[in-house]
Amino acid sequence: MHLLLTEPGDEPFLCDELKRTFVGAEAELLAPGLLRTDVVLQSTTPPVLAFARQLLPNAEPVSAASIREWSERLFEAVASRLPEGQPWRLHLAAHYGGEGAGGNRVRFIREALREQLRKRRRQRLRLLEHAETPFRETTSLVQLLLTAPDTGFLSVAPAPLPWQLRRCVWPFVKGELPVASDKAAPSRAFTKLVEAEQRLGLRIAADETCVDLGACPGSWSYVALNRGARVIAVDRSPLREDLMASPRLTFHQGDAFKFTPEASVDWLLCDVIAAPERSVELVLDWARQRRCRRFIVTIKFKGQGDYGKLEPLKHGLAALCDEFFLTRLCANKNEACVAGTVSPAETELAKGPFAADKESV
After folding, report:
1. What is the DSSP letter of 308?
2. Which of 34, 69, 147, 348 is the most buried (most CB within 10 A)?
3. Tell me: domain 190-347, CATH 3.40.50.150, correct?
4. Cα 274 from Cα 240, distance rounded (Å)
5. 152 has which bridge partners?
6. What's the mean pLDDT when you consider all of the chain?
7. In this predicted model, what pLDDT tens digit does every residue of 78-104 receive, in sequence order?
């Protein structure tokens, strides 16, 4: 059994996506934003589920009457089910009540577990990571999701499973990230770029070259310029005056979908308002032509009928990218984000980066 977390209200769209991904897939709604499914996950073709905020693979229902009992259950799992001598991470969260409910209980359980590990498995405690960086092949993940003070679900994913399923298992608790804040940015759109960088595990760096398509009023260019990057901004309208004055910004007035850089660039950035199929084809075309090394692109929807138009991205990018993800960001509205690292042409993997792995989850 696997658990899927999604944005409350998106449950029907996640169910539809599951059916497109797995023939005959069924999902049971357990609570707002929480579904259970028994689909068979193949690590050779890890699923890309844009409407899944987080996956808890092989989740088991568990119960405990006290903080101590919860810590004992976790200790048994951590002590006996993870590879020896390898790093691991722990996600504890509550999924009941209102915002903030269960927070104290989660904190007390974590403290009690640490105390047990300190007394009985000190080496295991030393290997506990608190990072939110992308999983390595040697990283294990333990997730406990409380659905009430005394009930919940436990997911133990020994390495390399979190890495194999990294397109839908996130290194963030419940798959969530706080929305960034910067009052100096031209608009709140910058939050999408910042979150996408965190999920990709890469940041725009000084002296890199970015193409920002549909750049006006300039929030994504603003982020890149603040990092010391060079920006080629493309739009029919100019950006905010201070951004236009930057010596590291070159402005091209025109159609974002007709622009082609003179040479391959480090980043393709695109938050343009367009039909989803146009943005999907834009990403695939830039990746096929190796016009960029990395990309972050927003796919904007006009209605619920557009959600299935994401499917060509899942299949196309698997053969073109070393890494990629497709998801609904915490900062997204009625849209999704696709980001990735394009494979060099000579090392393109026609069957995707998991071809050597033949185990099922």
Report:
1. G
2. 34
3. yes
4. 21
5. 62, 146
6. 93
7. 999 999 999 999 999 999 988 788 999
* Residue 38, φ and ψ in degrees, nearest 5: -115, 20
Element housing 70 (H / E): helix 67-81
List the chain domain ranges: 2-175, 190-347
Residue 42 DSSP class:
B
Is 359 exposed, middle or buried, given 0-12, 13-18 or 19+ CB atoms closer than 10 A? exposed
Q: How many Cβ atoms are within 10 Å of 92's Cβ, its own excluded?
A: 20
The closest alpha carbon to 332, from 191, 220, 199, 216, belongs to 191
DSSP state of 309: G
**Single-letter code of the amino acid located at 127:** L
Provide DSSP, 130-191. ---SPPPTT-EEEEEEEEETTEEEEEEE-TTHHHHTTTTS-SSGGG--PPP--TTSSSTTHH
3-state helix, strand, coil in the chain (%, to 5): 30, 25, 45
Contacts for 196-200: CB closer than 8 Å, 24+ residues apart = 196/296, 196/329, 196/337, 196/339, 197/296, 198/132, 199/170, 199/325, 199/327, 199/329, 199/339, 200/134, 200/294, 200/296, 200/323, 200/325, 200/339, 200/340, 200/341
> Nearest CA to 70 among 144, 126, 147, 173?
144
Element (H, E) at 320: none
Strands 230-235 and 209-213: parallel
* 0.90 surpassed by pTM: yes
193 residue type, one letter: L
CATH of domain 2-175: 3.30.2130
Sequence-distant (≥ 6) Cβ neighbours of residue 45 within 8 angstroms: 318, 352, 354
CA distance 109 to 311: 40
Over residues 188-220, the pLDDT tens digits come to 999 999 999 999 999 999 999 999 999 999 999
Residue type, 218: G
